[in-house]
Amino acid sequence: MAKHEYAFYPGCSSQKGASASNYLTSVESMCKTLDVKLTEIPDWNCCGASIGYAEAGELPRHVLNARNFALSEQHLPGQEIVATCAACWLGARETRERLTHSDTLMADTREALKEAGLTINEMPNVRHMVEVLIEDLGFEEMAKHVVRPLEGVKIAGYVGCQTNRPFGVAGESFENPVYLDKMVEMVGAESIPEYEQKVTCCGGALAFSEPEKAQAQIKDIVESAYDHGADMIVTPCPLCQANVEIYQGQINKRYGTKFDIPVMYYSQLMVVAYGGSAKDAALNGQVIKARRLEEIAAKPVKR
Amino acid sequence: MSANTAVAEKYRNNFLKEIEEQVEMGDWVKMCMQCGVCSGSCPTNFQSAWEHPPQELFMMIRAGKREEVLTSSSMWNCTSCYNCIVRCPRKLPITHIMHGIAEYAHRLGMAPKMQPTRFFSGLFWKNCTHTGRVNELKLSMGLYFKDGFVQGIKNGMAMQSVALGLVKAKRLNVMELFGGHKCKDQKGVHAMLKKAYEIERSRKTAKMAG
Q1: Is residue B61 part of a domain?
Q2: Taking the model in full, what pTM does it have?
């Protein structure tokens, strides 16, 4: 039996051929090393994300998340739900909070769920993968598996918004969370604790609808990483990753910059440091290739 | 109850009451003390300035400026970064109030029709609830073709290098156009959402009558 078991909520962007499929691949490799077993919640649905708000209303949005809770309770009783996506985690946690605080919302949600033949008896705990790593495993346990430290790589820890606010990781400050910097140090790379854009918003869904506004923000995030001498940026959020990585070409056109900096997931850094291959870490999923990591991943492992 | 309290109760600002009863988290609006920390913390207000930043919208609601608030494009600038929520000294759930006012304006048909984030928000919700899961390709295409076919092709061309990068990295699948990821129990998802809308609507109507 695995050391830690969870009901897994991968979310839409993690699916095959979707924008964060490289995140999922690297999380799976990371969990194998750490002996963490993730069992996908059968037939899970979208969380509605924050941006669905114009049509979502309050109850339909919570019912959407509650369906996942009900399925998790039915198929994986007693297991906590773990999400890798910041928006999935936030949406589900918010629903958990609202339903716990309002008997009316809870009763209405139960009535709507009946239409799908489902019910909720207990409110599940909803955790982000970084919470599991920090709280259930701990830095010491995570560090034990490092066999190929990312020596000489300087990495800006970009935490972003939704893994940080309004819930965040326990014990961390909203203005200057430090866990990501600690993870960077843990894999043997050099962190940049003074990176002042670490909790700046990437623009979220406005990167699609009003790109000029989002790209102004992304420019600040990338520029500051360069100013601090970063080789790459790391993040725990799929939308942060995509927004900060894929629009660099457009930002270059708009502002005359020469941005070309890789944006990674924490799980990819860990897989390479744990001795995994470039494929295990899904380095082929980068639009801006992380050459430094590819080189390290090709090196033999120090055991 | 004193005479003064009675008239104050009777002639209280009706738009504030409307927002309190019809908008998610609307009953928090009166708690705003106009400090402006929300506006100073807002990334899109900082970059390009909202016409009416959150604390101004709150005061306009109290002043009964119904038309100006509901037709405003301001709250549609919200990126859901939650910075205003964590910094508000009176703990107003400002992000949710912004979403709530926007949703209400959209529900009443008063929101600016061509506001791109209003359009995208509706598109996203329809996309994800149609099959139970987001179809990223159809979502992007739907947005590009918002202003018609010709503009759609132009938008698509402008985004070509971004899309190609994603396709090469296997993070965008052109086959999503013909199906894509979905829930098995789509019927159940649709039925429960239909019920949820019915319940929500009847609760709002009851508040208006009561």
Answers
A1: yes
A2: 0.95
